[in-house]
Amino acid sequence: MNKKINQLIQMLKAYLGIYVSISLGVFLFVLFFQPFPLQGFDFNNRLLFIAGLGAIVFITLVLILIVFNNYIQDYGHSNPDAVFPNYFGNFLLLAMSSVAFAFYLRFVGDVSITFHIMFKTTLICAAPLVVLWVHEKLKAYKQQNTELKREKENIRQQVEQYEDHYRNKSIEFSIDNGSGTLDLFISDIAFIKSADNYVEIAFKEDNIFKKKLIRSTLKNIEQQLRAYANFMRCHRICIVNSHYIENLSKNYNNHWLTLSGLEEKLPVSRQYLLKLKEVIR
Question: To which CATH superfamily is domain 170-280 assigned?
Answer without folding.
Answer: LytTr DNA-binding domain (2.40.50.1020)
